[in-house]
Amino acid sequence: MDKFSVYSARLVEKGEYFVSGHRACQGCAEALAVRLVMKALGRNTIVAMATGCMEIVSSPLPTTAWEVPWIHVAFENASAVVTGCESGMKAMMRKGKLPPKKINFVAMGGDGATADIGMGQLSGALERGHDFIYVCYDNEAYMNTGIQRSSATPWGASTTTSPAGKLSKGQHTQKKDMPKIAIAHNIPYVATACPSFPFDLMEKVKKAAAIQGPAYLHILSVCPTGWRIPTEEAIKYGR
After folding, report:
1. Domain locations in the chain?
2. pTM, whole model, 2 decimals?
3. Is the pLDDT assigned to residue 195 strictly greater than 60?
4. Of 9, 27, 117, 204, which has the fewest beta carbons less than 10 angstroms from its beta carbon?
5. DSSP conformation letters of 78-145
């Protein structure tokens, strides 16, 4: 999988590293996105995940869905934790305490953890040049805590804290452009993706893993519950 493109189902990694049994809502595109990301990365991966939907639905026993080392962290510090892992393990490799090997260090967070609460830590990790991948699963609101607006919520969207109605047009600010903010850090790789286009998503993950230095992936992850759409139409809306 390391040296060629993912353009056919026959080329997709057969192993599963984010497995069934979690408690995500029906039609959750974020769960599908996590599965595709992990299939592209493979087993030699360490994940630090911010509090949010995926942490809640995939970590508690007996519904744990992770087949790789996985760390639950606070809303704000996924970047800090995983870059600490990266620095520490690479130091141990240099000292001969661990065998040298390629490890994917990955921080994951939703749009709230990325664009709001954890933005400072993310910016610091990108600026320092750590060799890690940051994956933002953007469902455009704080879905886990009741569909509240975030700074990634698009203009006019109706949430519980920006309700659309006679006295309000809904979200009154424009969506924060996190990919452009990542680009402003002059990092080697920034990409956008959506699980509605699975081969494209996995190809971009593989490119992120292949480069040296920080990479930022912004994945639009349709939330049927928060977007108030039929559960079977998440892929359609992602397109």
Report:
1. 13-238
2. 0.94
3. yes
4. 9
5. HHHHHHHHHHHHHHHHHTTSS-----EEEEEEEHIIIIIITHHHHHHHHHHT-S-EEEEEE-SSBTTT
Q: How many alpha carbons fall within 13 Å on the CB side of residue 192?
A: 12
Positive or negative torsion for Cα 65, 71, 72, 78: negative
* CA separation for the pair 15, 187 (Å, rounded): 30
Residues 92-146 pLDDT 10s: 999 999 999 999 999 999 999 999 999 999 999 999 999 999 999 999 999 999 9
Quick: pLDDT tens for 146-181. Answer: 999 999 999 999 999 999 999 899 999 999 999 999
**Phi/psi of residue 177, nearest 5 degrees:** -90, 85
102 burial class (0-12, 13-18, 19+ CB within 10 angstroms)? exposed
Tell me which amino acid residue 54 is.
M
Q: How many CB atoms lie within 10 A of CB 89?
A: 16
Does the domain spanning 13-238 belong to CATH 3.40.50.720?
A: no
Q: Which residues pair with 168 in a beta bridge?
A: 165
| Rounded average pLDDT over 1-28 | 79
